[in-house]
Design a protein that fits this description.
There is one protein chain. The chain is mostly helical. The chain has a single domain, classed as Orthogonal Bundle (Proton glutamate symport protein), CATH 1.10.3860. The protein is built from 20 helices and two strands. The longest helix has about 35 residues. The radius of gyration is 22 Å and the shape is globular. The chain starts with 7 loop residues before the first helix and ends with a helix. The chain binds aspartic acid.
Length: about 425
């Protein structure tokens, strides 16, 4: 069989495995047999990412508008909105609790000696502040102030998705309250735009194996495996907690709330999770997530286009968990006692910042800096975790996207939608 006939997720998986092998062979100098292949990987990876990012703004706007307009009256909208927010808050909280228990049990930061020596501080404080400023580090109030943008075009162009989502929600809501002659034209226009975006997504996804290969090979060659040594305990804590959420919490919710086989669901959305892993961006993955949830899992367009664009920005279980573990790890490394009250503040801030930050690579670092300053921990502590942040970013983004997709299925089921992956597990099949 030609490799192009293999299912997309197999193609992506093979690309991933190859990328890890090639990335390790290339190493930090970027050379393979004397040729600078890293530049080539970066070029191809960037092209693929650009193509996905190009779709984000029109996709978010058109899908939320038709999603909200399609729901119709305020009662339905209130119900669906309530369920969506309820699911997002519940899963993020569950994830944070898992992270908190893991970090308090394993205590990866408790070591003898100064944290700089033991963990190898990788960035100077000045450099760090500059990096964070680039990513729009702010306090938490500023993040939520931008929820109502003064200029919606600027919000779209500067990646402030919360503002864009808020505007689109209003637009869709009032679309159903204007005269029919206008409403129909408006609805058709946005629906058409949405359909076109999904077709372009199809096209972009044909290049996913290539894009994934390039992105992952370049990350592996730059990061290598040496950096993991001193941070192994931290790395392990995050991975164990993420794995618990991914393999236990979400499947249990899928099974008991959605009556859906977790295995079949994960198989249906695997291209989205693999894309999330490779791009480390929930927003860039959004087109793929929507396509998988609608086409493979069978969720209606109405639910998909409301729940998923919101989820890509608002629902980040992996991010919330990571923030909590990272802040506690930094406190442990500096030997700072965290009282129960302070840990509670960390939990609340992890939840709020995971809602407020964008679905882009390394967004957690911004959120962590906000939490560190709020609870009075040294900002330079972020330097401790930088070496492993990228790989953990890939993993937490996959968990973020997995949770969004589970939410879409559970909410669709609760709305009585038919034809979604049926539960074939004997215990509840009766
Ligand atoms: N990269 C993550 C996402 O896009 C956010 C983060 O945790 O940094 O979902």
């Amino acid at each position: 069989m030609s490799p192009l006939k293999l299912k997309l997720h197999w193609q992506i998986l093979i690309a991933l495995a190859l990328a890890i092998a090639v990335g390790l062979a290339v190493g930090r100098d970027g050379l393979l047999l004397g040729v600078n292949v890293d530049a080539g990987f970066d070029f191809i990876g960037e092209l693929f990412l650009n193509a996905l990012k190009m779709l984000i703004v029109p996709l978010i706007v058109s899908s939320i508008i038709i999603g909200v307009a399609g729901i119709g009256d305020s009662e339905n909208l209130g119900r669906l909105g309530g369920k969506t927010i309820g699911y997002y808050a519940l899963t993020s909280m569950l994830a944070i609790v898992v992270g908190l228990v893991a970090v308090n049990t394993i205590q990866p930061g408790v070591v003898d000696g100064s944290p700089q020596e033991v963990f190898g501080l990788h960035a100077s404080t000045a450099e760090l502040e500059r990096d964070l400023a680039d990513k729009g580090a702010d306090d938490i109030v500023a993040i939520f102030l931008r929820m109502i943008p003064t200029n919606v075009v600027q919000a779209a162009s500067s990646g402030q998705m919360l503002g864009l989502i808020f505007f689109s929600l209003l637009y869709g809501f009032f679309l159903t309250r204007i005269a029919n002659q206008y409403a129909e034209a408006q609805y058709n226009f946005w629906n058409g735009m949405f359909e076109i975006m999904m077709r372009i997504t199809d096209l972009v996804m044909r290049f996913a194996p290539l894009g994934v290969f390039a992105l992952v090979a370049s990350t592996v060659s730059a990061t290598g495996l040496a950096a993991f040594g001193p941070l192994a305990a931290f790395f392990f804590t995050v991975v164990a907690a993420l794995a618990f959420h991914f393999f236990f919490t979400l499947p249990l919710l899928l099974y008991y709330l959605g009556d859906v086989s977790p295995l079949r669901h994960y198989r249906a959305v695997s291209p989205a999770m693999l894309t999330a892993f490779s791009t480390a961006s929930s927003s860039a993955t959004l087109p793929v997530t929507m396509e998988c949830v609608e086409k493979n899992a069978g969720v209606s367009n109405k639910t998909t286009s409301f729940v998923l664009p919101l989820g890509a920005t608002v629902n980040m279980d992996g991010t919330a968990l990571y923030e909590c573990v990272a802040v506690m790890f930094i406190a442990q490394a500096y030997g700072i006692e965290m009282t129960l009250a302070t840990q509670f503040i960390v939990v609340v801030l992890a939840l709020l910042t995971s809602i407020g930050v964008a679905g882009i690579p390394a967004a957690s670092l911004v959120a962590i800096s906000i939490i560190l300053s709020a609870v009075g921990l040294p900002l330079e502590g972020i330097g401790l975790i930088l070496a492993v942040d990228r790989i953990l970013d890939m993993m937490r983004t996959a968990v973020n996207v997995a949770s969004d997709s589970c939410g879409a299925v559970i909410i669709a089921k609760s709305e009585g939608e038919e034809g979604i992956l049926e539960n074939d597990m004997p215990a509840r099949a009766a």
